[in-house]
Amino acid sequence: RDLHSFPTRRSSDLATRLRLSLVDAARLDEAALTQLGARGVLRLAKGTAQIIIGPLADQVAGEIQDAMRAP
Predict the structure, then answer these.
(1) Cβ distance 21 to 10 under 8 Å?
(2) 14, 51 contact by CB (below 8 A)
(3) Which residues pair with 32 in a beta bridge?
(4) Where would I find the beta strands (DSSP E) of the chain?
(5) Alpha helices in the chain (DSSP H)
(6) Residues 6+ apart with CB under 8 A from 4
(7) pLDDT tens digit string along 6-31?
(8) 9-48: b (≥16 Cβ within 10 Å) or e
(9) Predicted TM-score (pTM) above 0.85
């Protein structure tokens, strides 16, 4: 799945979780995230979610941030 397709405004890591601030929470594809290796998805306050990834969360956050900066 192309990282540019995720509807995020911002991402950050929480040791084992990726915290997302979403533009459109309805577009968050939990099944796709699970297929990519996520261990779980927590939908929190409106427009935010935490993706449980494990110890690679900081690496994944960095890759998403790099992809979001790319043209």
Answers:
(1) yes
(2) no
(3) none
(4) 8-14, 17-22, 40-43, 48-52
(5) 30-35, 57-69
(6) 67, 68, 70
(7) 555 555 545 688 888 889 988 888 89
(8) eebebeeebbbbebeebeebeeeebeeeebeebeeeeeee
(9) no
